[in-house]
Amino acid sequence: MRNKIHKVFSNNQEPTSINTISYVINNFDNFDGEKGSRNTIKKISIENYSFNVKSFKVPHLINRVAYSFFRKSKANRSFEYATILLNNGINTPKPLAYFEYSNFYLLNKSYYVSKQLDYDFTYRELVNNKNYPNFDTILREFTRFTFDLHEKGINFLDHSPGNTLIKKNESTNKYDFYLVDLNRMKFHQMSFKDRMKNFSKLTPRKEMVEVMANEYAKLFGESEKNIFNQMWLFTEEFQKKFHNKIAIKKKMFFWKKIYRDS
């Protein structure tokens, strides 16, 4: 078969929702959205529905083969992992569908569709603004949320500033945390090293790591000093690799505007 479409929808959806999602995917290029260097994300409101649709970049040939025969696609994993999170009591925007387009038996385009979530801010706001309202409370509640992930054996490999959406829960007067960009996760019993390394991408700010270490120590059987030392060690390692990577890209792709202006 030259061209093939594989699509999966979540259970308990109305036929009109399924038909609308199919229409959106078929006409994806006609809707406005945010195009990144790798993927395109569009918030689409249509027929009383509000969707968040992520279009994954067409993989290079080796990965097209891998995703077609050996590994699940990013869209597939996003859908499955979202379902696993919800089944474990972890918030994420409701998964609705994923689509995979193949030609000559190799994966081409793929899409992940979730229900649009109206949130208040992301973890990134805490990194960028140390005077953010209720800063300490939010950071400590976020740490407890991360501890809950660890206790449930959920290793969110892309635990980074933009991948946690935060919404104030007016009924509990606390904050709810929602994970997004889900295609890189592992599910296993997490060691102390795994737990500490999971904080490494969140912030370069030492004072934030100190707060998270203090709160995590209240929940886990290690000293606050040891927790902080390990968190900060992995944070410094990540920051060094991150900035080295950017420096290399600036030299290799110096003509690109994104690197000229940074």
Oligomer: single chain
Q: What proportion of the residues is helical, as a percent range?
A: 40-55%
Low-confidence stretches: none
Overall mean pLDDT: 91
DSSP helical segment count:
9
Number of beta-strand segments = 11
Head-to-tail CA distance between termini = 46 Å
Per the CATH scheme, the topology name of the largest domain is Transferase(Phosphotransferase), domain 1
- Identify the CATH architecture of the largest domain: Orthogonal Bundle
Which secondary-structure class do the elements indicate? Answer: alpha+beta
Globular, elongated, flat, extended or rod-shaped: what is the shape? Answer: globular
- What is the strand content? 15-25%
Radius of gyration: 20 Å
Question: Largest sheet, described in full?
Answer: 6 strands, antiparallel
Q: Please give the order of strands in the largest beta sheet.
A: 1-5-6-4-3-2
Whole-number count of domains: 2
CATH top level label of the largest domain: Mainly Alpha
Please write the string of helix (H) and strand (E) elements. EHEEEHHEEEHHEEEEHHHH
